[in-house]
Every structure is written in structure tokens, then in C-alpha cells.
Amino acid sequence: MSASDVLHPDGSDYDAFLFAEVGEDRTGAAVTVLSALARLNLEPWTEARELSGLGREDAKVRLTTHFEAITDIPALALASEGRAAKLVSLLPKRAPLRVPKSLEAGTNNFPKLSMSWTTMALVGVVVLAWLLYLAQTG
């Protein structure tokens, strides 16, 4: 697996869209579509794929709704609909024919459980303490 596959799970079909600048936040940092979507806790490549699967008008409305939810980028408050229309034009004309790697392996659509190392260590300590307790009482 190349570094490009890791950084861009769906390839570079969405790069023009995701890396387009939408303005500066209140701290003066440049904000791209990718970082704007991430601020909304959306997975940028998934959102880009879903937007490209919609009709242009529906994609523009959805992107405008996203932009209106972001309050720390003053440029988005102004003409967010016009900006969304320009950005939607950067999406591929149709959804790419690539099958995500997660679907190639099978039909496992169960949500992934995310456990931090701290949680796993805590569970390990509890199990070990329980085993020690059972060993002493038995």
C-alpha cells in the first residue's frame, strides 16, 4: 500500500475539491474544504464521494448547509451558496468506479469499535486482578 493510498483512501479524484481553499478562519489560518468538513466531524473523502454521487443542485444545497454550520470562517458566511456551486464543479462528474478497499474484502459492514490503549490496558488489569482473586479463593 502506497503512502497515497493511506492519505487518500479513494485516490486523488477528489483532490481538486478537497484541497480548494474556502477562506481563512478567525485566527488567519487558511481553510480548505477538507479542513472545513473535518471541523464538522465529517470524513472528507466519504463526504466528497457522496456529494459527487448527488445531482449538482443537490450537492450544492448540501455543501451550502455544511458551510452555514461553520461559524469561525467569516468568508463562508458571505455567499456560501455561490462558493458551494463553484466547489461542486470541482467534483468528478460521476462517482468514481473504484470500490473502497473496505468493501473488497467482504460484506462486513459492522461498525468498527475503537478502543484506546488506555482502555485495553485497564481491561487487562481488571481481568488479571479477577484471575488472581479466583486463584486465591479456589
Keywords:
138 residues; mainly alpha; two-stranded antiparallel ribbon; 2 strands; elongated
Beta-strand content:
5-15%
Order of helices and strands: HHEEHHHHHHH
- Calculate the mean pLDDT score and round it: 75
Structural class: mainly alpha
- Helix content percent band: 55-70%
**What profile does the largest beta sheet have?**
2 strands, antiparallel
Low-confidence stretches: none
Q: How many distinct beta strands? A: 2
What does this molecule look like?
The chain is mainly α and 138 residues long. The protein contains 9 helices and 2 strands. It has helices spanning 3-7, 15-18, 33-39, 44-53, 56-68, 74-77, 80-88, 101-104, 117-137; strands at 21-24, 30-32. The protein has a two-stranded antiparallel ribbon with strand order 1-2. Strand 1 (21-24) and strand 2 (30-32) form a beta hairpin. Helix 4 (44-53) packs antiparallel against helix 5 (56-68). It is elongated, with a radius of gyration of 22 Å. The model has no long low-confidence stretch (mean pLDDT 75).
Task: Write a brief caption for the model.
With 138 residues, this protein is mainly alpha-helical.
